[in-house]
Specification:
324 residues, D-Maltodextrin-Binding Protein, domain 2, ten-stranded mixed β-sheet, alpha/beta, 10 helices, single chain
Length: 324
């Protein structure tokens, strides 16, 4: 009887030891995050996405607790494709996340060979929605979207439209508006929003399309004719939407966070829960507002559906207006 009891104790001890080893080796059971979380940013330091990552990162640390540490790693290049690819190919254990920009990230899968697609990620949370605008300089003769479109209709292709680049939200805004108005703009891409804005202010182009946040601080120099969103922005409450003016066009920049596809469920849930909690963080709201950004938390499956819809828009525009 004693031998049987002793044998049972030994078997129980071995079982407990095995469970302990499994818990340590499997991040789904460990106290996540037990290691620093690296957030890959596919853009240069100091840009809008980089600043967003650093601001959100410090609040994410607090929500995760457990002495969480969020470290930003910039990997710019190849039109931001390098960063998105690095995230897609990283180990799905919660130690590597990445910023994710829509529609740009999905547009890159159509105009070149990409090592990722819409199914390569676990969608954690969109954080910011920055709607596009149609703008002219304060010296422009156009005081309404109707006047601008009328000029384009009279001489299709004569109205120069400044864009930050091809294959992104600026480009797509111009294409969608031209289609809705049944006209054509002369699209002129630049190397970034600041250069496009400089050309516009210098009188080298008649109009431009850029994210609303990129007009903040330039109110005395820029005239915003329309916001391409479902409703007016609190940052420009007197500016009507394109929809209000008869053109059913919405487009903007969505910026959020993803992880490599296949996160352990407990890790994914922990991250999504932490991001959801940011929606009520007044300090974060204030910091984003100072940058001209609106907090727009969209998590999990809803975020994935947003990515799929933006991928669909990019695909259709690529098929009708290939930009390379």
């Amino acid at each position: 009887m004693f031998k049987t009891f002793r044998k049972t104790l030994i078997i129980s001890a071995i079982a407990l030891s095995t469970q302990a080893v499994t818990a340590v080796g499997n991040p789904a059971f460990a106290d996540y995050p037990e290691k620093p979380i690296e957030v890959i940013v596919g853009y240069s330091a100091g840009g809008g996405t980089d600043v967003l990552a650093r601001v959100v990162g410090k609040y994410l640390e607090k929500e995760l607790g457990n002495d969480a540490s969020v470290v930003i790693k910039n990997q710019p290049g190849a039109g931001d494709q390098i960063g998105f690819t690095s995230v897609a190919k990283a180990k799905a254990n919660g130690t590597t996340l990445g910023t994710f920009n829509l529609p740009a990230a999905m547009a890159l899968t159509y105009d070149r060979k990409a090592a990722y697609d819409v199914n390569s990620f676990d969608y954690l949370a969109n954080v910011v929605h920055d709607p596009n605008t149609l703008v002219v300089s304060q010296d422009s003769p156009y005081h309404s979207l109707k006047e601008l479109i009328q000029a384009a209709k009279e001489k299709p292709g004569s109205v120069g439209m400044a864009l930050a680049s091809l294959g992104g939200n600026d480009h797509f805004s111009a294409l969608l508006l031209a289609a809705a108005a049944d006209t054509e703009f002369n699209l002129i891409p630049f190397s970034g929003a600041s250069m496009a804005r400089t050309a516009l202010l210098g009188g080298h182009v008649a109009a431009g399309t850029m994210a609303l946040s990129q007009t903040i601080g330039f109110e005395d120099e820029l005239r915003v004719l329309a916001v391409l969103d479902d409703k007016r922005s609190s940052f420009a409450p007197d500016v009507p939407t394109a929809k209000e003016q008869g053109y059913d066009v919405t487009m903007g920049s969505y910026r959020g966070f993803v992880a490599p596809h296949g996160l352990p469920e407990k890790v994914r849930t922990r991250l999504v829960t932490a991001f959801k909690a940011l929606a009520d963080n007044e300090n974060l709201l204030d910091e984003l507002a100072a940058q001209g950004n609106t907090l727009d938390i969209i998590t999990g499956e809803d975020y994935r559906q947003l990515s799929e819809s933006q991928a669909d828009v990019a695909k259709k525009l690529w098929e009708s207006h290939p930009w390379k």
